[in-house]
Design a protein that fits this description.
The complex is a heterodimer of chains A (259) and B (441).
Chain A lengths: L31 H12 L17 H21 L5 H18 L17 H5 L4 H16 L28 H4 L6 H13 L37 H12 L13
Helix pairs in contact in A: 2-3
Chain B lengths: L13 E7 L4 E6 L5 E6 L3 E7 L13 E8 L4 E3 L4 E3 L5 E4 L7 E6 L4 E14 L23 E17 L9 E4 L5 E5 L3 E6 L7 E5 L12 E6 L6 E6 L4 E5 L11 E3 L12 H5 L3 E4 L5 E5 L3 E6 L8 E4 L8 H6 L9 E3 L5 E5 L4 E6 L5 E5 L15 E3 L8 E3 L11 E4 L5 E6 L2 E7 L3
Parallel strand pairs in B: 28-29
Antiparallel strand pairs in B: 1-32, 2-3, 3-4, 4-5, 6-7, 8-9, 9-10, 10-11, 12-13, 13-14, 14-15, 16-17, 17-18, 18-19, 20-21, 21-22, 22-23, 24-25, 25-26, 26-27, 30-31, 31-32
The chains are: A mainly alpha (259), B mainly beta (441).
């Protein structure tokens, strides 16, 4: 009489000790809620394969893919928040995310990543690299992704990490260069340019130096008018800013030290 | 002229000496003769080890490596325009071929390459006319006679001085440097560009490869490693995050955006997954000493390519195939992005690469045998043989086997180096440097 294999026998090797065993002993899991999803994921050791793969028939791809999708989006956010993202990591995560996105909604046309309306000349003239443009493209990709169901609870890509009450979503990367103009932005504010610069993040001049969440590259001025959390610089102000920086327009106050 | 050594019958029978380096080691490289071994670390420091001369009176210390020179190569910098800190971590060290008494090496961090001269001083001059022994200037009116300074022996002092600084040529992070066989030029590669430098000229470089798209939104691929051919000074290769390798010939055009050869192995449809691209990303590419082959390292394997065949590698060696079913967890903890290096032995008959749990793997290309060894202090008594390790991928674990689930993924061996001639290997395990030698010598 052959013994019918019981469900117990099919418990995969990987799930015996729990989800933490794959990780090195010293590392903590990033989020508690991921642990639950991780448990499910590891229990079925083929779920991460493309839906086309025959083995996936056993697995619930929609549920599993969603957790992998969320994980990838988190990684993308984390990567973009770095002051200087690791380009290889970023590119690999984005490509993986696109692959997952394609498998999750194979019938829906992938929204084409729109070219963000670039602030005139600023990105080109002030930045040695196109990091701002890259961030802008990633931001618009994330915007598209945010329309996909299940992502509504994920943080908006450009939420500020600086001091509370100081939204930096609209701060253009060029403001990094403005730091060169003077030691205290307070001086510039006094002369009626306040409205223009009110969303400069002056955390650099606050007590903690080298705040890693510098606003330099993770936000873009090209966000559509639909975004509510950040006051926008309109094109006229950006033009003015641009002129100030290239020197065609003199500042309204005499040059101070550090200019 | 390389000496071809036959492996002992049991292969890879190694004794050990090891050193503790203060910071996490980020690169390891033997000099061309193998008498010097350079390490770079996360703190921007370079430590050079020298092999002791064989000494009949001290037979046990034959061939041990001891610290020869230590210097600070790179300091942390701040890029004011972008408000970014530039890490001082040494990404790569490459030795120049020796031409005189002094030794030269190139070391690089993310943005700046430096040429260092390492020279010995074992004599000093005494009896100067214009200054006394303390170095203070003598009163010229008091000098009544001239004398000839004489050279006196002193304790050996090794000095490192920066001779060239090659800066401001890379927008992205430098991942590779490679000295050309002409001994006059070298290349440096970042994520999107490769530049050609002349060793004497620091204020300009030539861009020879540029894969930056006009619109950064279209960026899907980055350069991961690059190297010059060991003999043909016009040939270089570079690998990508998509698992492809391009061979370029600088004679065909000034800008090598169009490759001469394109190496890519077609994807195996049965093992396709969301992580296929990430695990195919090439983390290291190395020409064989002969120049006929090149080796690439991706996440799970090492591949040997014949330069004359672009369609697929001639050999594929599995490093840790048991990780294939764990890719999701490794993606989650970012280990899947780890960049392992690989190296050839002097005769190109064996290759070596690192893994997790302080394991490293060696593959004998002639016998097709492979072995897993461990670099750890508990398991390495000086002059004791290393015991081969085995990983149990599933099922019943045998005695002495390590189960996949108990591997320590924080103990990764990313950097290894093989002596250019002898069976001596250097293995960097976080901040420990291990040097193993074949006892069969």
């Amino acid at each position: 009489m052959s013994r019918v294999a019981s469900r117990k026998d099919r418990v995969p090797r990987g799930s015996v000790k729990g989800p933490g065993m794959m990780l090195s002993k010293g590392l903590k899991r990033k989020r508690e809620e991921e642990e639950e999803e991780g448990k499910e994921a590891l229990a079925v050791d083929t779920w991460w394969l493309d839906p086309g793969h025959p083995a996936v028939a056993q697995a619930p791809p929609a549920v599993a893919s969603s957790s992998l999708f969320d994980l990838s989006v988190l990684k993308l956010h984390h990567s973009l928040r770095q002051s200087e993202p690791d380009l290889r990591h970023l590119v690999l995560v984005v490509n993986t995310l696109r692959r997952i996105q394609a498998s999750m909604a194979p019938t829906a046309a992938l929204p084409p990543v729109p070219s963000p309306p670039t602030a005139p000349g600023i990105a080109d003239n002030l930045l040695a690299s196109s990091d701002a443009a890259l961030s802008a493209s990633m931001a618009s990709l994330l915007e598209d992704l945010s329309h996909i169901e299940g992502l509504s609870q994920a943080p908006q890509p450009l939420v500020d990490e600086g001091p509370p009450g100081r939204p930096t979503g609209g701060a253009p990367p060029s403001l990094g260069a403005l730091d060169l103009l003077g030691p205290a932005t307070g001086c510039l504010l006094d002369d009626g340019l306040e409205g223009l610069f009110e969303d400069i993040d002056t955390s650099m001049y606050d007590s903690e130096l080298w705040a890693p969440a510098s606003e330099g590259h993770k936000s873009s001025p090209e966000d559509g008018p639909g975004k509510e959390e950040a006051p926008e610089l309109d094109e006229a102000e950006l033009d003015y800013l641009m002129d100030v920086l290239v020197g065609t327009q003199a500042l309204e106050r005499p040059s101070g030290p550090g200019r | 002229m390389t000496t071809f050594r036959k492996h002992s019958s049991s292969s890879f029978n190694f004794a050990v000496n090891f050193s503790l380096v203060a910071d996490v080691i980020s690169t390891v490289e033997f000099s061309h003769s193998g008498d010097l071994l350079a390490t770079g670390d996360k703190g921007g420091r370079v430590v050079i080890f020298q092999r002791e001369q064989e000494n009949k009176s001290r037979p046990h210390s034959r061939g041990e490596y001891n610290v020869y020179s230590t210097f600070q190569s790179h300091e942390p910098e701040f890029d004011y325009l972008k408000s970014l800190e530039i890490e001082e971590k040494i990404n790569k060290i490459r030795w120049l071929p020796q031409q005189g008494a002094a030794r030269f090496l190139l070391s690089t961090n993310d943005k700046t390459i430096k040429l260092w001269k390492i020279s010995e001083r074992d004599k000093r001059a005494e009896g100067y006319n214009l200054k006394d022994e303390d170095g203070r200037l003598r009163d010229p009116l008091r000098i009544t006679a001239l004398r000839v300074p004489i050279l006196k022996p002193m304790d050996l002092m090794v000095e490192a001085s920066p001779r060239r600084v090659f800066a401001n040529a890379h927008t992205y992070h430098i991942n590779s440097i490679s000295v050309n066989s002409d001994h006059e030029t070298y290349l440096s590669a970042d994520d999107l560009r490769i530049n050609l430098w002349h060793l004497e000229i620091t204020d300009r470089s030539f861009n020879i490869v540029d894969i930056k798209p006009a619109n950064m939104e279209e960026l899907t691929e980055v350069i991961t490693a690059a190297e010059f051919h060991p003999h043909q000074c016009n040939v270089l290769v570079y690998s990508s995050s998509k698992g492809t390798i391009r061979l370029c010939d600088m004679r065909s055009s000034a800008l090598c955006d169009r490759h001469s050869k394109f190496f890519e192995e077609p994807e195996d449809p049965s093992s396709r997954s969301f992580f296929s691209e990430i695990i195919s990303s090439v983390s290291d590419v190395k020409f064989s000493h002969s120049g006929r082959y090149m080796m690439t390292r991706d996440y799970l394997s090492v591949k040997v390519w014949d330069l004359n065949m672009e369609s697929r590698p001639v050999e594929t060696h599995q490093v840790h195939e048991y990780l294939r079913s764990k890719l999701c967890s490794l993606y989650e903890n970012d280990c899947i992005f780890d960049k392992f290096e690989c190296c050839w032995n002097g005769s190109d008959s064996a290759i070596m690469t690192g893994s997790y749990n302080n394991f490293f793997r060696m593959f004998d290309r002639t016998t097709w045998r492979d072995v897993t060894l461990e670099a750890s202090r508990e398991n390495s008594k000086p002059r004791a043989s290393l015991k081969p390790r085995r990983v149990c991928a599933g099922g019943k674990r045998k005695k002495d086997e390590v189960s996949v689930d108990s591997l320590d993924f924080s103990k990764k061996i990313l950097h290894t180096a093989w002596h250019p001639v002898e069976n001596i290997i250097a293995v960097a395990a976080t901040n420990n440097l291990y040097i193993f030698q074949d006892k069969a010598n």
